[in-house]
Amino acid sequence: MKFSQRTENQKFWGACIAIFMLGTGSAVASTDNAPDTVVTKLNTALIHSMKMGPSSSYESRFHALYPEISHAYDFSKIAHYSLGTAWDKLSAPEKKQFVQALTDYSVANYAAHFTHYAGQKFSSPVSKSVPGHRMMVSSTLKSGNGGKNNTFDYLLSQNHGQWKIVNVTTDGVSNLAMQKAEFTGALKKGGIHALMNGINKRSEKLAHAAR
């Protein structure tokens, strides 16, 4: 199973894999887990990865980013929505494997692409409430050398009182349509195991290219 080709810009920001998910939360999150804090921690981890630079190994960046990204994103919700009704047909082990494949691929994207630091910095996150007891947090990665700035709009919902990212729009382009369409097409062609195999191969390709 092969994924469709993307532009270089889409590949770069493909690190921000996340799917829109309607969510409601009843518990009130603590200040340490406020939506803007979640995004700030993620931004800090990305800048750290960039400062590690190409002189560091891919594995070092991957392991440094893994806990931060897996904590910031709600990959279980992302996986559920991205597969739609097909999710309910999976066995418990298959669901676990798919979530893991999706998590690893996301971290691999970040580790492979956030490797060069030239004075870039993120703007302070700005939060606003949106329908469905969710929050939208915006932050801009500002170029340090006069290049293009990139704005990220993160949609967060609560999971057991913890704010998690469930969607990201980059410079006005949401990952929702691209990700869901790609997964739906792969499922129709080869089923869940072919899809997971394709995602894992993507992760391996990113790791190989970044070494």
UniProtKB/TrEMBL annotation:
InterPro entries: Hopanoid_biosyn-assoc_HpnM, MlaC/ttg2D, Tgt2/MlaC_sf
Keywords attached to this entry: Signal
Keyword Signal part of the UniProt annotation: yes
A Pfam family hit: MlaC
Annotated signal peptide: 1-29
Highest taxon above the source species: Bacteria
TM helices/strands, residue ranges: none
Signal is among the record's keywords: yes
PANTHER family, sorted: INTERMEMBRANE PHOSPHOLIPID TRANSPORT SYSTEM BINDING PROTEIN MLAC
Protein name, UniProt field: Phospholipid-binding protein MlaC
